[in-house]
């Protein structure tokens, strides 16, 4: 086995303890990584090969530093190593500067306790935007335990594994892998023809797009691209923009959707205990945060789950 080591420096403030706490409670990837007091070990597919990364905190909230070990079956070429480290930085949102978000929150006394409790939490994304989109399809009208079983079936059939320190780590397949699978074969595996068609469409779309476009193009342009994919509706597109791509500047509160209901519940806990905020009130508060609406929503939901 090949092991390559290095260090990464997140933008401060960065609290790796908050990262670990979030991962411990994040249902879509629960059980897919090993968590220790100051470390996480997790697999990912990189350029057709499975890489297991172990990240350990070696710094502080104001002077953060992460020690990284990359495990692979064969020595990683320079390009694959660079891609793995880039994926890791993006997955953990190490380059997010939270100070403008915290400055925006200074005039919001109701929200101040959430900031204090979660100070230094950078968003933990899905490992890839494709995995996020695939989860969105599998989760349509299905409880989370069922969705996890469907995802695990895909991983065991089309993903890859690597054993590190006696633990077997399974990585979710890349888009190109699932794009080459016939929808009928996917339907036989997950026992759902419609979701198999949607999953195939998502895989083909993500296999054919440059992720640099998804990360860097105008928000509305990426939103339009996502909405053109069969099976990706308004909620799924917003979900991928936020949790797969870290596009935190936009929240769409569509009336009577699960997202609006959940956000209303989380925000009401902070802003109006005992009374549920209306959709218009929720949108009004969110708009105060401008391009940081996504982080505002993240802190509200995380605070609710931790409370």
CATH superfamily (homologous) name of the largest domain: Hypothetical protein, domain 2
The helix/strand series, from N terminus to C terminus, equals EHEEEEHHHHHEEHHHHHHHHH
Structural class: alpha+beta
- Give the strand content: 5-15%
User: So how many helices?
Assistant: 15
The profile of the biggest β sheet is: 5 strands, antiparallel
Query: Span between N and C termini?
Result: 42 Å
> What is the C-alpha radius of gyration, as a whole number of Å?
19 Å
CATH architecture assignment name of the largest domain: Orthogonal Bundle
Please write the CATH class name of the largest domain: Mainly Alpha
Average pLDDT: 94
- pLDDT below 50 for ≥5 consecutive residues: which ranges? none
| Morphology | globular
How many DSSP-defined strands?
Answer: 7
CATH topology of the largest domain: Endonuclease III, domain 1
Helix content: 40-55%
């Amino acid at each position: 086995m090949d092991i390559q080591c290095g260090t990464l420096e997140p933008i401060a403030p960065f609290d790796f303890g908050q990262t670990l706490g979030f991962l411990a409670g994040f249902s879509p990837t629960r059980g897919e990584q090993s968590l220790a007091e100051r470390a996480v070990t997790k697999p990912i597919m990189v350029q057709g090969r499975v890489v297991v990364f172990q990240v350990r905190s070696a710094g502080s909230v104001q002077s953060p530093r992460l020690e990284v070990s990359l495990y692979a079956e064969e020595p990683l070429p320079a390009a694959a190593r660079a891609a793995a480290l880039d994926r890791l930085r993006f997955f953990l949102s190490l380059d997010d500067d939270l100070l403008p978000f915290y400055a925006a929150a200074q005039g919001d006394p109701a929200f101040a306790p959430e900031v204090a409790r979660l100070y230094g939490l950078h968003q933990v994304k899905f490992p890839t935007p494709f995995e996020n989109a695939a989860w969105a399809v599998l989760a349509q009208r299905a409880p989370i335990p069922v969705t996890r079983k469907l995802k695990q079936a895909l991983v065991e059939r089309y993903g890859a594994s690597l054993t590190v320190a006696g633990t077997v780590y399974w990585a979710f397949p890349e888009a190109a892998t699932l794009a080459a699978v016939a929808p009928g074969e996917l339907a036989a595996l997950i026992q759902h023809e419609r979701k198999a068609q949607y999953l195939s469409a998502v895989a083909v779309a993500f296999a054919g797009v440059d992720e640099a476009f998804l990360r860097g193009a105008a928000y509305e342009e990426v939103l339009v691209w996502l909405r053109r994919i069969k099976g990706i509706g308004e909620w799924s597109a917003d979900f991928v923009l936020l949790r797969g791509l870290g596009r935190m500047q936009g929240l769409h509160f569509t009336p009577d959707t699960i997202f609006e209901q959940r956000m209303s519940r989380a925000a009401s806990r902070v802003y109006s205990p005992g009374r549920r905020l209306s959709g218009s009130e929720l949108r009004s508060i969110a708009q105060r945060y401008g391009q940081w609406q996504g982080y505002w929503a993240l802190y509200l939901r995380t605070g609710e789950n931790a409370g």
